[in-house]
Amino acid sequence: MVSKASEKDLGPLAASSFPLLVYDHGAPPDDIVQTVLSVADGSLRTIQVPEMCNYTCLETPQGLVLMVDTAAASSQQRWLWNPQTGETTALPAMDEPLPDHCRCLLYDASSSPPPDYWSPDYEDTTPPDSLVLVYDLTRPEMLLYRIRGGAGWVRQYYDDMGLCEAPGRDPIEMPLGCMAVVQGTFYFLKSRHEVGAFVTFADGPEPCLHPVTFDCDEPKSTLVTGDGEKPPQTVATMSYLLESCGDLFLVCVFYLGCTMERIEEVGVYRMDPLAKEWCKVTDIGDMAFLLGPSHFAASCAAAEHGLKKGCVYYCNDLIGDSNEFHIFDLKEGTRDS
Predict the structure, then answer these.
(1) How far is CA 110 from CA 107, 125, 202, 207, in A?
(2) What is the rounded CA–CA span in Å between residue 146 and residue 153?
(3) Which long-range contacts (CB under 8 A, 24 or more apart) does 150-154 make?
(4) Of 45, 185, 203, 249, which sits most exposed with the smallest number of CB within 10 A?
(5) Is residue 247 a contact partner of residue 287, using CB atoms and an 8 Å limit?
(6) What is the DSSP letter of 331?
(7) What is the DSSP letter of 16?
(8) pLDDT digit string, tens, across residues 175-233
């Protein structure tokens, strides 16, 4: 999990150690500990964060954590927690637990409205109110809550994402793998050749997201196409969507071969909303990108958190308890592990 935590909760860790990568271990009610890796200085500690004990925690790219009291017998109490300040925002409970594998996104309605290139009927649409969105990583289903004025959680299904087929099993509807919210629009990768988004139409009191898509090819590694000196090779890609400074970005981590044991290249691409295409960039300004498990991705001001600007900080665990951690400098084309 990528998160910030307060100095009070983390005791010996100094504030300069933020941001932190937090790995949760154990099963309630005993042996609840967290392994905390400082992205800024590389220090590693095993501690216990009281606020994370006995709760299900979903980190968000916006810096807040959705907390669910899994010990509640009759309902699943929920709230948003700011690990840096300790502040909380109460949310309605639900009578059922969160999906076992899911992600959470937040949208603050105080940000500017989305651009008007999605639909010729854009004048009939409005940006959503502040929303909490939880999407299932195993089936096409979302949970939505309107923070101001919402009556409760709304469950929404979606389809037309294609079928996931496996030998010996019936085909199932493809769920979303990664999403990012930019100025009120929730973007996703529908396929290698399509980008989609969920937008809100002003047609009812409860939040309801409508999908729209456009053609846009996923970027390819130079290892796939060849660079004139090397022949094309087989490459597996891990893709991450994130928002930074009001733009939509795609980060592709290219692994050589299908075993995904060795990273060969990292590419960062900004969406050109007019051309509707991914444009490769090597300069992300004073920002740093943080990538974590389950397609988590976030952007933060590098200097504010003691990070090196223009870098991608990548943490994943694809082959067991490796907790691999890499820093990619986009301008220099270098990597530290």
Answers:
(1) 9, 17, 17, 17
(2) 8
(3) 150/92, 150/206, 150/207, 151/205, 151/206, 152/92, 153/92, 153/94, 154/206, 154/207, 154/208
(4) 203
(5) no
(6) T
(7) G
(8) 888 899 998 889 999 888 999 988 875 555 677 788 888 999 999 887 665 555 666 66
